[in-house]
């Protein structure tokens, strides 16, 4: 279930169907459940940070995951981030995600691998605030 990083503005969540098992195909029902949970939060926009290594797990869908999000009525930005890299997100990746976040109407959800999820949403926002000159009080 999504967690608000900024109340009613930015939420983060692990990828749909994540159960901690690596390499296991994700059933369509798990994606549909995740999309229903996200909609309950009022989210209509998704920044998908899954890389090709994660996207291949969605082979039970009638189309690729990003297209499936769109077919479900979401606006989607896809910025592929490879899992298990260090750092989890490069400065270039952070800049891309911040630009997507600014472009999209709020609220926005980020959909990502578990490892990227652990740091990303807060780091994305902090990075963007620093670059924009904004201050957190």
What do you see in this structure?
There is one protein chain. The chain is α/β, with parallel strands linked by helices and 137 residues long. The protein has a single domain (3-132), classed as Protein tyrosine phosphatase superfamily (Protein-Tyrosine Phosphatase, Chain A, Alpha-Beta Complex), CATH 3.90.190.10. Helices cover 41% and strands 20% of the residues. It contains five helices and five strands; from the N terminus they run ββαβααβαβα. A hairpin with a 3-residue loop joins strand 1 (3-6) and strand 2. The model is unreliable at 113-119 and 128-137 (pLDDT under 50).
Features:
Protein-Tyrosine Phosphatase, Chain A, five-stranded mixed β-sheet, 20% strand, 137 residues
Strand order of the largest sheet: 1-2-5-3-4
Low-confidence spans: pLDDT under 50, at least 5 residues? 113-119, 128-137
CATH fold group:
Protein-Tyrosine Phosphatase, Chain A
In total, how many beta strands? 5
User: Rg from C-alpha positions?
Assistant: 14 Å
- Provide the residue-averaged pLDDT: 76
Strand % is 15-25%
Query: What are the secondary-structure elements, in order, as H or E?
Result: EEHEHHEHEH
The domain tally reads: 1
Under the CATH scheme, the architecture is: Alpha-Beta Complex
Short description:
This protein has helices at residues 28-40, 52-55, 65-71, 91-103, 114-132; strands spanning 3-6, 10-14, 45-50, 75-81, 108-112. By secondary structure, the protein is of the alpha/beta class.
Outline the fold blueprint.
Elements: E1 3-6, E2 10-14, H1 28-40, E3 45-50, H2 52-55, H3 65-71, E4 75-81, H4 91-103, E5 108-112, H5 114-132
Parallel strand pairs: 2-5, 3-4, 3-5
Antiparallel strand pairs: 1-2
Helix pairs in contact: 4-5
């Amino acid at each position: 279930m999504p967690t608000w990083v900024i109340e009613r503005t930015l939420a983060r969540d692990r990828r749909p169907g994540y159960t901690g098992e690596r390499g296991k195909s994700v059933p369509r029902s798990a994606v549909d459940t995740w999309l229903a949970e996200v909609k309950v939060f009022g989210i209509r926009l998704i920044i998908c940070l899954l890389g090709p290594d994660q996207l291949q797990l969605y082979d039970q869908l009638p189309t690729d995951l990003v297209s499936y999000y769109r077919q479900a009525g979401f606006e989607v930005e896809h910025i592929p981030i490879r899992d298990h890299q260090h750092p989890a997100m490069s400065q270039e990746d952070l800049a891309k995600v911040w630009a997507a976040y600014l472009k999209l109407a709020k609220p926005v959800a980020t959909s990502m691998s578990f490892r990227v999820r652990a740091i990303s949403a807060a780091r994305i926002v902090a990075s963007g605030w620093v670059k924009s000159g904004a201050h957190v009080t």
